[in-house]
Amino acid sequence: MRGAPNLNVSVVVPVYNEESTLETIISRVRADVPNLFEIILVDDCSHDNTPQVIQRISASEPLIRTVRHETNQGKTAALKTAFAMVKGDVVIVQDADLEYDPAEIKHVIQPILDGHADVVYGSRFLVRRAARVVYFYHYLANKFLTFLSNALTNLNMTDVETCYKAFRTPIICNMLIESSGFGFEVEVTAKIAKLHCRVYEVPISYYGRTYDEGKKIGTKDGIAAIFYILYYNLFISLSGSFAPVPDEFVH
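Above: the chain sequence. Below: its structure as tokens.
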């Protein structure tokens, strides 16, 4: 794939208790994402009015496909469910809150559309654009996790914990995703490094939330991330990371 600007784009949205923001996010995705082919919503057993919001917006939007988990399984499980449904050529993850602006998706996927990249991360630190000033300890934790991940993958990433990750579909849909909670971010980084694919970063803005405003990630997720970084980099092989390994990356 070299220079394919007309590739179809799938946006996957893991959702958990986001009744106040989901409709706005979907409206922005619909308006701002180029080559939009589908929006896949996975409701991870929300117990607020999120299911009603999903029902209302999906009834009038033919691009939306939905599924609901009957028990809460975490973000990684929601993404795994979504990736199994993807039909587009390019996949990007969009959180259901307002921390990431869908207007920037076009910048994240552009290196893939231009044929330069197989995977693109939207970095909150590559260039400091608009970024809400919130928790210093989260910043330190992110930097530490990114450093540890880089030391084992030999990738010079600046933000492995970013939500905005875009992939050519065969890469993410063939990946064996096994972690739980918020483990997806570091697991996928370890596995794309084993693939030796073309990885890019682009700068994005970040409109972080406080815990009072609904932020969900916590200390235990950071501890789990350290385990996952070590485990998926040191103990899982390339063949154990994909089923099968995409043909173009078989050496």
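The longest strand covers residues 36-43.
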